[in-house]
Amino acid sequence: MELKDKLISSFFAFEEQVDVNNDVHQLRTKAIKDFETIGFPRKKEEDWKYTSLNSILKEDYSLFPKKESAIDYNDVKKYFIHDIDTYCIVFIDGIYSSQLSNTTHDKIDACLMSSALHSPKYKAIIDNYFDKITPKDSGLNALNTAFSKEGAFINIPKNTMADRPIQILNFSTGSEAALMVQPRNLIVVGENSHVQIIERHQSLTENPVLTNSVTEIYAEKRAQLDYYKIQNDKGSASLIDSTYVEQKQESFCSVHTFSFGGKLVRNNLQFFQRGERIDSTMKGITITEGKQHIDHNTLVHHIEPNCESHQDYKGIYGDKSTGVFNGKVLVEKEAQKTNAFQSNNNILVSDKATINSKPQLEIFADDVKCSHGCTIGQLDEEAMFYLKTRGIPAKEARALLMYAFANNVLDSVKIPEIKQRINKLIANKLNVNLGFDL
Amino acid sequence: MNKFTEDDLREELKTKEYEYGFYTDVESDTFPVGLNEDVVRAISKKKEEPEWMTEWRLEAFRVWQKMEEPDWANVHYEKPDFQNISYYSAPNNKPKYDSIDDVDPELLDTFKRLGISLDEQKKLAGVAVDVVMDSVSVTTTFKKSLAEKGIIFCPISEAIREHPELVKKYLGTVVPTSDNFYAALNSAVFSDGSFCYIPKGVRCPMELSTYFRINQAGTGQFERTLVVADESSYVSYLEGCTAPSRDENQLHAAVVELIALDDAEIKYSTVQNWYPGNAEGKGGVFNFVTKRGLCEDRAKISWTQVETGSAVTWKYPSCILKGDYSIGEFYSIAVTNNFQQADTGTKMIHLGKNTKSTIISKGISAGNSQNSYRGLVQINSRAENARNFSQCDSLLMGNECGAHTFPYIEAKNKSAIVEHEATTSKIGEDQLFYCNQRGIDTEKAIALIVNGFSKEVLNKLPMEFAVEAQKLLEISLEGSVG
Predict the structure, then answer these.
(1) Are residues A129 and A256 in the same domain?
(2) Which residues in chain A touch residue B402, judged by CB atoms under 8 angstroms apart?
(3) Which of A348, A366, A371 sits opposite B414 (nearest CB)?
(4) How many Cβ atoms are within 10 Å of B268's Cβ, its own excluded?
(5) Are A293 and A263 spatial neighbours (Cβ–Cβ below 8 Å)?
(6) Rounded to 5 degrees, what angle do the CA atoms A374, A375, A379 make?
(7) Inter-chain contact B409–A376, Cβ cutoff 8 Å?
(8) How far is A307 from chain B (nearest CA, A)?
(9) Which terminus has fewer CB within 10 Å in chain A: N or C?
(10) Partner-chain residue, chosen from A46, A359, A363, that has the shortest CB–CB distance to B407
(11) How far is B69 from chain A (nearest CA, A)?
(12) Which residues of B fall within a CB distance of 8 Å from A364?
């Protein structure tokens, strides 16, 4: 049976697990119908021109893991940012693990979507925010909404600083031959509030996993949000991550995406600026090898005047891997005095690697400063030569230069521990030991 | 002092009718509207074409019937009814002229009013003009001096009759009949166009040029141009157009094929000023053009275009850099005003080693217009050391217009170096203020700034065209400040 049919027919089984009298369930039933009409994206669609899902859709995924799996903290400790104090929301095969998690309701709410959906306390928030900014023309979003049940729910009330960062971790244990999970996250940052979030998807075995994740983020007036996505999964795991951010006036949001692992990774990242003097930042480092396929699809929708957006994506592509960058800046007629910058730099290190870049500007306002730049090139031979004359072996020299190439993306990372972690991941990925912490 | 205010400007623009909007009353031999195999056969017969050509057209027609009109471009318009177009129209009195004096005086007058008086050009610029008026070449000048060098420059219909071996060898090799909807349509029904062949090692002594005009009401224009530059030859080819004012949308679907063999160089320049529709966006020409060039080893093709006219433009002059060390260039200025829409750009396909391409695109949008750059830079896995530089700048005037950039960059070789940058901005208040302060009125100041903005491209045009193009920019943008 095709995955699409399987998903549609298993919706009835899913209905038995959830409270069908909940308002959210109306959204679910509508969404499954939408998914039935729209289906999975095809290569004919402009947004999916360079990414085909065919290879990952043919697996026979099980949609509901049969048993709850427990994992020992020591086995997965390395996937946590453990050297700082954080709140943790941990899911194993899509199911909440209270043993590994450290949630809170003290001042801020960092808890579960399933409990938020059923608790009357959060009904207003769910009614106000749930599924409000996800584009309805996407089959993958509809699919996620239809099966939305579990995920992280983070609510930072007005005038609150979250006292520590929040980690969202999704583990898959491989207890099923192939697993599909669909986490659904909702993050609301109230007026003048501030929060930092780290998200990671990790499979623990080589069994195929497909994650179709949707995250909605709402930043109210003057809110500040830093979001870090660490994508360093096994070569058998695929991830489709859709993140939608709606910002109100004077808010500041940044999303950093570090893509090193995974078989197929597709990041849909969209910002909607509904207010003046907003700053949106999205940055990314991508390093690939093998037959990896990593696709970044971004959109910044400038709706109101006096806003800024910054995009900076760096990619290093090796072996037979493919990289895609499809960035779009849309400036509406009313959005005068917009400053939008977009930059995409790529290095191909193998003859079989491919990069497809499509930086788009669509501008309807005249008093704007918008620019985009895109480069594809190699490491500077002279710099390589210089390093070699100083006694640094070619491999390390190359790694140093690549590190330098990607480095300025890390400048805006505000948590030093994450910076260190990323540095380590880069060194691992480039397969070098530089003898010092980069 | 007599002050010319912005309101005056706006008023002037509104009342300013298309300068070249007049209609020459030349008796035309026009086919009834509609398209089917019989019409294709009739066109072929009318042109006294050999059997293989008729078959070629019919094949294209069959392919076209199966195709759908593309709608991916960032333009919106009412799709033309292809069964409501007359596919052939030729000026009736069509003797072969020996000298320019024999040409219908009314025709000559048309060109004079366009400011391209043939005899003047003949004398001053040394330009051979292959005049195309409603699809049929009426006169060819300087043929003799070209013939001495072995250069063939004639209407394509004549080339089909007299040089079938060349046409057969090259026609449709760069733009196959099945390439796209409009190319297929053109292949089936093209009425005429120009053919140019430069023999080995010859440097064409003058700028070759054709003027395209759309004249007869309700006739589509389907030009076919084929330029072949044999090994180590050079040619510079100019194409310029103005069309009479017409209320009903006119369709223009031309195909241009350039073939530059080893070490050859082709420079192809276009100034396009077709009727853009009136201030309310009514009427205007639909310009759906397929232009493509093929470069063999060490060959170079350079496209330069100044696009100011047409209601809807859909045009991507491309280079296939097949040979090693070949070079492709694209320089473009696209100006849109009122309700014009332009979706234009280029494709640079790098296949050979050490190939280079440069793209400089300047978009200027004013009024309610939409101006898009759409380009593809593709580096294939065999293209070692390929190099591309692209720059797309957009200038916005007024807050009702839009500027869009859709670059596609695909690299499959690690030695490729590709750079793309794009900026969008408006004319700085301070720049205008500075000019005003120096006694330059706003209108002039805008022209000055726009000229500076487009200088990189204007510089690439042949002399005569550069002057004309500069004027055209000023005219197109008149009164667009607000």
Answers:
(1) yes
(2) 362-364
(3) A348
(4) 22
(5) yes
(6) 155
(7) yes
(8) 15
(9) N
(10) A359
(11) 16
(12) 399, 401-402
Q: Which residue of chain A has the CA closest to B401? A: A364
B77: number of Cβ within 10 Å: 15
pLDDT tens for chain A, residues 1 to 438:
688 888 998 898 888 888 888 888 999 999 999 999 999 998 888 889 899 998 888 888 888 877 677 788 888 888 888 888 999 999 998 889 888 889 888 889 999 998 888 888 898 999 999 999 999 899 999 999 999 989 999 999 999 999 999 999 999 888 888 899 999 999 999 999 999 999 999 988 888 999 999 999 999 999 999 999 999 898 889 999 999 999 999 999 999 999 998 999 999 999 999 999 999 999 999 999 999 999 999 999 999 999 999 999 999 998 899 999 999 999 998 999 999 999 999 999 888 899 999 998 899 888 888 888 899 988 888 999 999 999 988 888 888 888 888 888 988 899 998 988 888 888 888 877 765 554
Instruction: Identify whether the C-beta of residue B375 lies closer than 8 Å to the C-beta of residue B359.
Output: yes
Residues composing chain A: 438
Separation in Å, CA of A30 to nearest CA in chain B: 30
ipTM of the prediction: 0.81
Based on the fold, state whether residues A78 and A209 are members of the same structural domain: yes
Please tell me if residue A90 touches chain B, with a CB cutoff of 8 Å. no
CB B390 within 8 A of CB B375: yes
- Tell me how many domains chain A contains: 2
Whether the CB of A364 is below 8 Å from some CB of chain B: the reply is yes
Residues of A in contact with B72 (CB under 8 A): 46
Domain ranges of chain B: 127-177+189-477
List CB contacts (< 8 A) between A348 and chain B: 411, 413-414, 416
Q: Searching chain B, which residue's CA lies closest to the CA of residue A357?
A: B409
* Chain B residues 360-379 within an 8 A CB cutoff of chain A: 379
- Dig out the tokens for A353 from the structure: 């690697």
Q: Are A140 and A267 in contact (CB under 8 A)?
A: no
Q: Please check whether residue A360 lies inside any domain of the structure.
A: no
**Number of Cβ within a 10 Å radius of residue A6:** 14
- Residues of chain A with C-beta less than 8 angstroms from the C-beta of B425: 368-370
**Structural domain of residue A391, as residue ranges?**
379-438
Helices and strands: H and E segment counts in chain A:
10, 20
Q: Which of B417, B424, B425, B426 to mutate to test the interface with A (most CBs of A within 10 A)?
A: B424
HEC readout, B142-173: CHHHHHHCCCEEEEHHHHHHHCHHHHHHHCCC
Q: Rounded to whole angstroms, how far apart are CA atoms A90 and A103? A: 9
- How many residue pairs from chains A and B have C-beta atoms closer than 8 A? 119
Residue B403 touches partner A, C-beta closer than 8 Å: yes
Long-range CB contacts (within 8 A, 24+) of B464-468: B464/B125, B464/B127, B464/B207, B464/B238, B465/B238, B465/B240, B465/B269, B465/B271, B465/B306, B468/B115, B468/B240, B468/B271
Residue B52 CB coordination number (10 Å): 12
CB A41 within 8 A of CB A138: yes
Q: Is residue A291 part of a domain?
A: no
Whole-number Å distance between alpha carbons of B241 and B306: 11
Q: Tokens 């695929």 label which residue?
A: A238
Kindly determine whether residue B410 and residue A349, on different chains, have CB atoms separated by under 8 Å.
Answer: no
The minimal CB distance from A376 to the residues B400, B405, B411 is found for B411
Nearest by CB to residue B404, choosing from A357, A362, A367, is A362
Chain B residue whose CA is closest to A378? B415
Question: Which one of A257, A274, A291 terminates a domain?
Answer: A274
